[in-house]
Amino acid sequence: MKTKKITAVVLASVMMLSLAGCSTTTNNKYAKALDAIGYEHVKSDKDIEDRMDEATEDGFYLSTSKKADIESFCDGFTYIDADDCKSLTAGMKMTEDGSELIVLSVTFKDADAAEDFMDEMKDEFGGMGEVYGGFSGVDYADDEDDDYFKLALKSDDYDMEMYIDITIDGKVVNMVMVMASGEDDREEIVGDMEDFYKEIDEDSPADLL
After folding, report:
1. What's the rounded Cα separation, in Å, for the pair 159 and 181?
2. Nearest-CA neighbor of 123 among 102, 105, 149?
3. What is the 3-state secondary structure (H, E, C) of 56-110?
4. Pick from 128, 154, 144, 131: which is nearest to 209 by CA?
């Protein structure tokens, strides 16, 4: 599943970057929203290197404009060329059973690089309606325009929810991804997503359903 592949590499990249040590740049609304919903702001590798599992389950975020940190992130997340990236904020939460929320905000050095990344993400997720849209017991919807792609999937029959929200504004691409299964995990992870959207004062992709 493409979504699982993407979230896995983002998770690995966030962990890699957090252990590399990061700057304390937090002047974007994604970082502020993650802070507001109780995710820990990681300031250096010493913050969580001995308690990564705990930090991941509780939720944490980092924000950086340092070249070395960006290169470390992009080594794991190959969809972004480090040379094209000016700064980034990444947040994550993953339960013991593997349900996860990923938040990523990337400021590129120019609008063309941002558009290229946006196009890649649309290519990855744009065909998912053909795969899931006709499944019995699955509520599925997506919406796409030049500057956004949103996807929502919910199935009580399969006990899962999946949401993807990607937007572009000039040089900035923002992405939120959720995969959650199991009653408790769905309540926790999707609840965090909804709280996050309230903080940034935007519509949740769950509103598509």
Report:
1. 6
2. 149
3. HHHCEEEEECCHHHHHHHHHHCCCCCHHHEEEEEEEEEECCCCCEEEEEEEEECC
4. 154
H helix and E strand count, the chain: 8, 8
10-residue averages of pLDDT along the chain (209 residues): 54 49 58 93 62 80 83 79 90 91 93 94 82 83 93 92 95 94 96 97 96
Tokens 């794991």, residue located: 76
CA distance 44 to 55: 13
Task: Output the pTM of the full model.
Answer: 0.86
Using DSSP, state whether 10 is helix, strand or coil: helix
Distances (CA, A) of 82 to 23, 58, 77, 138: 16, 28, 10, 38
pLDDT of residue 25: 45
**In this predicted structure, what is the pLDDT of residue 72?**
78
Bridge partners, residue 177, by sequence: 102, 164
pLDDT at res. 5: 54
Strand order across the beta sheet in which 60-64 lies: 40-41, 60-64, 85-94, 100-108, 172-181, 160-169, 148-155, 139-145
The number of C-alpha atoms within 13 Å of 154 and in the hemisphere containing its C-beta is 11
In this structure, the chain runs to a length of 209
Which amino acid would we find at residue 185? Answer: D
Residue type, 88: L
How many CB atoms are closer than 10 A to CB 163? 25
